[in-house]
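User: Can you help me understand a structure? I only have the sequence.
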Amino acid sequence: MESKKDIWARWSVLVALLSLIAALIFNGFQVRGSAEAQRQAKVATELGLLAGIQTAMTESIYAKVPYSDELAELKTGKRTRISTAAYQAVAEEAYGMNYFAWLFNHDYLDAPEADELLGPVMVCEYEETFTRVFAAPAGEVPELARFVQSHAPRIRCTP
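Assistant: Let's start by predicting it. Here is the structure, written out as tokens:
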């Protein structure tokens, strides 16, 4: 017959194992809940960033409006250069888009289809404006050039 000490030792081992299993299950739920909370925070951050990007992009595009005649003449070949003010407005837009492209290229923005929302504007501005304004657009806005290279085949710009 087993002594009370042996019985208590077995029960202690059993209780310890059950406690360990319960702790592991609880930790599993905590990890899953934490991962979901992180995913939701990331999505919320990306949405805020996308809203900011859209605002910045809209402002930079509207900043070029006073120079629309110069840019149109540049596109048609009636002009070979644009004014310093027009160049500055285009450069500000290009450098902003270069940053946005960097976010996409380095997976800081990977919300589903976010690049499809902003990609057409970025690709068409690069192809229709930046290539005419900058002597070496890929050198001026390298991240945007990389973004355009990967997205241009799917996007058709209309004049």
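Now, to help you interpret it: The longest helix spans residues 4-63. The mean pLDDT is 84. Let me know which part you'd like to focus on.
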